[in-house]
Amino acid sequence: MESCNCIEPQWPAEELLMKYQYISDFLIALSYFSIPLEIIYFVKKSAVFPYRWVLVQFGSFIVLCGATHLINLWTFAPYSRTVAIVMTIAKVLTAVVSCATALMLVHIIPDLLSVKTRELFLKNRAAALDREMGLIRTQEETGRHVRMLTHEIRSTLDRQTILWTTLVELGKTLDLEECALWMPTRTGLELQLSYALRQQNRVDVTVPIQLPVINRVFSSNRALKISPNCPVARLRPLTGTYVPGEVVAVRVPLLHLSNFQINDWPELSTKRYALMVLMLPSDSARQWHVHELELVEVVADQVLDCLI
Predict the structure, then answer these.
(1) Helices 159-174 and 290-307, packing angle to 10 deg
(2) 287 vs 44 pLDDT, higher one
(3) Which residue ranges run through the membrane (predicted)?
């Protein structure tokens, strides 16, 4: 023993156990030596990564860990003092680098978390900007449809055509499930369903003009949301699990009722209102937006201008 300066293992060797340990140390060392190569590749490809020196430190730590496992391959048999010294140096270096890496992570992790927080903030902000841009594009598209609708309305002098064109174009522009117009009857005490997009065989349906919801709409020049269950909004039978969409209503001033051949109206000198009801598609989560309500109000004004 003194002539070869060798160190004996601490316990008798078991051949199968030693073989598994030997192979495991070899594979561990091989893996540890390959990981730094992948880190180097990442650093080269990631030009904006702010903590390159952290990756260098990790690479050094991993290489030293691999070196300890590699040197350990010579300790499964009697080995020289030189091997023991090399193993000791490798372990000391690994311990120093490991402790430095652990201490470094204490300061780096909060920064990394803040980076992730900023990333999430920027993603949310980008998503919000995308939604705003989509809304702007929708408003621009809606404005274009309004101009087209105004042109269609002004291109005819026939009052019946004006009203029907208004309903049809509004239905296309806003993708409505239903758009209807309720006109006052001859007595002025009721509103009659006179135009409806989806009802081919229209029947005479009337509602009292003194309903609170009608009074509320007639007393305002704005497009107002109304309950889908009120009489003027119940434009199709409720069957199955049908869930009606949101409904708005707006008044349409009628200054010259004699121009309309409905219920043989006589000429009336007093101002009367028709009621336009617009329903969004059923069984959907779509809601009315402010710019859509403004569009409906503009169209109602355009109809008034053409009827004067």
Answers:
(1) 170
(2) 287
(3) 20-43, 55-77, 83-109
